[in-house]
């Protein structure tokens, strides 16, 4: 915060300087000289630190020479995670990459190295001791060389609300949950060494669903005997279901912060339906909720507001928040499939689900679905960056997102919009010019006809035929008229592309791990933060794209020009996947999540907390 203030003061100073004339400028220069090293934002532009971009020859300017004719201007960072482009600044992607690399390196460097440091860091972040068993968890982390041992904020986001609910009410909620449909109950009893599936309410033949859950539990084979007694309910389906009521969520969050709990009987009754009930009343989702799109036969027509300022993702997690970005509620199958949204839950329901949005309080385990080792890349047809000959953005998939009937707005879901947009020859997009380097103003976006860029830049298509549609009602036919369904790509074919896009389907994208493991540069648009979200860095390991796709063509344009940066992120991404998304990394996450859940769901949370360091054992007290 202090830095922001200092920056904006300096920016103000500079603006005044140029409007009032040279005298001011001279005064500022003197001021700067007398201060020795220039303030941060000046350094960004006058002695550009290009070391992270590997262009050391551009480190310094000759004696007072400055490539900008007027004051370089800064882009604006909004609290909801976006960068708003200032045409008088450099191309924002340079800056986004550099900032992200600096933050990532700082994160790696400050990581705890001992159990004691990890305990201190835990208490600093979460204002309470770690869970019982934290020392054994730490042993696992050391033994398997798990990096970033402090970065488990996703567990905090999931479990913190439950700290504010009275343990008896949480237990009652769990018992009720076990009676609902499509639940798989997992338990470890005091007598057992193992986590076991003890009950299911999944109808029909549940085998495939049970496998999904046991695949998750298998991550803990090595350590499950060390886990405390536990009882949890899992959903084996693709989507989250537990919409939070903002009033309830704020009550439990406040209680958790004060170290107390509230009782369920004190929660306000639920009268109002809708996604926005998960949001604070002052947020955009409540204040100016966008209308639901018109129902088909009105097909989605790609239409960007070419006079709106360009924005890019600065914080991927923040841009996944539908309260701050209500357009997500009308452009993604997760939300569109329930129209304006369901009723929120009347209490917190501790269901473990394969993914969740920030409006849900489902608890997210790491999901090994689609996991690959990455050791046999070439066997699967991938080739080194230099051999990738296709510079179009590649995407293939099915038309998942929501069921297409005559009364669902299916053509507005994320995949439908993508395929319509990337194959349209009608309309324009606005694209930022791509300067050679960071010392050139980016300028105003330019209007380009989709008919020109799509064939050259995009290779995006549905495969097979229409699915999740109403044969009798005619929506399958409508889809097949609207889009060309192509054959699917083999891995070898996919390996030719430099740029591959990853988007959500019915739920989270199960192919991200596989894609990240390739030598291609991965673009990703999603509304689901996942277990690794605090353990990866957008712009260092992948390119974050807004669900609106308003930045998609800009990113493609940028990386087609800056091949060195594209190659760099592609290879950092693969290295990240190999080092930070091993089975052991998922295991360490799940192990810690279960220790935390065992504590928060117990009747005596204090007794289930870790008691000090190994040097102050119970015998010493
Ligand atoms: C387009 O963007 C401009 C600038 O932000 C705004 O004033 C205008 O209302 C927008 N138009 C539409 C149709 O949303
Ligand atoms: C689309 O962009 C082209 C320039 O590429 C321009 O000539 C044309 O007027 C634009 N069309 C619209 C509808 O704005």
Topology:
Layout: H1 2-20, H2 22-35, H3 40-46, E1 76-77, E2 82-84, H4 92-109, H5 115-126, H6 134-143, H7 153-163, H8 167-179, E3 184-188, E4 196-200, H9 207-217, E5 230-234, H10 246-258, H11 284-287, E6 311-313, H12 316-319, H13 333-336, E7 351-352, E8 390-397, H14 414-423, E9 428-431, E10 446-449, H15 450-457, E11 458-463, H16 475-482, E12 485-486, H17 491-494, E13 497-503, H18 512-516, E14 521-525, E15 543-544, H19 552-561, H20 563-580, H21 583-600
Parallel strand pairs: 5-7, 8-11, 8-13, 11-12, 13-14, 14-15
Antiparallel strand pairs: 1-2, 2-6, 3-4, 3-5, 9-10
Helix pairs in contact: 1-2, 6-21, 7-10, 7-21
Residues 305, 307-308 line the site of one 2-acetamido-2-deoxy-beta-D-glucopyranose.
Q: What does the model show?
A:
With 621 residues, the protein is of the alpha/beta class. The chain folds into two domains: 234 residues, no CATH class; 205 residues, Rossmann fold (3-Layer(aba) Sandwich), CATH 3.40.50. The protein has 21 helices and 15 strands. Strands 12-11-8-13-14-15 form a six-stranded parallel β-sheet. Strands 4-3-5-7 form a four-stranded mixed β-sheet, sandwiched between helices. Strands 1-2-6 form a three-stranded antiparallel β-sheet. β1 and β2 form a beta hairpin. α1 runs antiparallel to α2, α7 crosses α10 and α7 runs parallel beside α21. The chain is globular and about 65 Å long. The N terminus and C terminus are likely disordered. The site of one 2-acetamido-2-deoxy-beta-D-glucopyranose has 4 residues, from β10. This is Glycosyltransferase family 90 protein. Keywords: Transferase.
